[in-house]
Amino acid sequence: LRNMQRQPSLEGVPSNFNNSNIESSATQKTSLNVNSAYHQTEKETITQEEINSFLEHSKKQFTEIQKIWDSRNIDNLKSFCTDDLILDLSRQINERTNLSEKTSITELNASWQGMNTYFSKDGHEVDEVYVLFSGMVRENDNSVSKEFSEIWTLQRLKSTNDGWLIAGITQNED
Length: 174
Fold this sequence. Notes:
It is globular and about 45 Å long. It is an alpha+beta fold and 174 residues long. The N terminus is likely disordered. The protein is 26% helix and 28% strand.
């Protein structure tokens, strides 16, 4: 995923965000599915323990998503991302020329960058979390590990029990 989206995520949620989840629970997206304790409202606060648990789970998902990216399996990637992000990632996967890419994550850190709640254009209340992933990565067996740093924007609709979906990835430039 190192060569993914280099622009910031969209401020709002696309009008078709999670339509598949709203219309049919049989096709429910499940990525980054964490305990509903991460669901923040005006009456709730998130504890450091909950944040730490969220980040540990996010790191596991990061590693799993990287394996899916390397395998070029767009169908498996769909369960982790918003529909708009999948369109962009599908294009990027199809443009990749290195078919033997096998990423090794040699160091992975995750830090909580904040949380926002807002209403989408279609009136849904949306939680949005920002996680900074950084560390060292090797993009094939013969390459040297290099540093990476990127912020993932995760979203979920408050009105559902669906998991968190990646809505954007912004790579921090050195």
